[in-house]
Amino acid sequence: MPHHGSATSSSEAWIQAVQASTVITQSGFANHFGFPHAKVIQRYLQQPFTDIMLNTAYGAVIGSWQKDGVQWQYVEGIQTRKSDAALQWVNSHL
User: Fold this and answer.
1) Given 8, 47, 63, 89, which residue has the most CB atoms within 10 angstroms?
2) How far is CA 92 from CA 32, 36, 57, 78, in A?
3) Which residues, including other chains, have CB under 8 Å from residue 42's CB and lie 6 or more apart?
4) Taking Cα atoms as reference points, which of 64, 83, 62 lies closest to residue 74?
5) 82 vs 1, 30, 53, 85, 94, CA distance in Å?
6) Along the 94 residues of the chain, how does pLDDT read in single tens digits?
């Protein structure tokens, strides 16, 4: 997802042209810019071909390139109050 998911980062036309199968947001939890912006997430969620990975909810994302494509996974970590709060924040913005 371009520019951390700012409100103007991904127009509907751009999303349609790219047709990404996986979109990763890289932004800080509860950042003062409000990234990723809810409107941008909704634009991606309306596409049948897109899987969204939110680092604000689950932490770092690792991509592993294989012969048959890329395998994406979250880094498993210790569950904390901060990660619980991050998930609640993301869910409230969807």
Assistant:
1) 47
2) 16, 12, 11, 22
3) 94
4) 62
5) 23, 10, 18, 5, 19
6) 887 888 888 888 988 898 888 888 888 777 788 788 888 888 888 888 778 888 777 778 888 888 998 888 877 654 555 556 666 666 666 6
Nearby residues of 91 by Cβ (< 8 Å), 6 or more positions away: 57
Kindly state the tokens that stand for 65.
């390139």
Taking the model in full, what pTM does it have?
A: 0.64
Place of tokens 């634009």: 43
Residue 9 exposed, middle or buried by CB count within 10 Å (0-12, 13-18, 19+): middle
Alpha carbon distances (Å) from 57 to 22, 42, 46, 71: 16, 16, 20, 19
The number of helices, as runs of H, and strands, as runs of E, in the chain is 4, 4
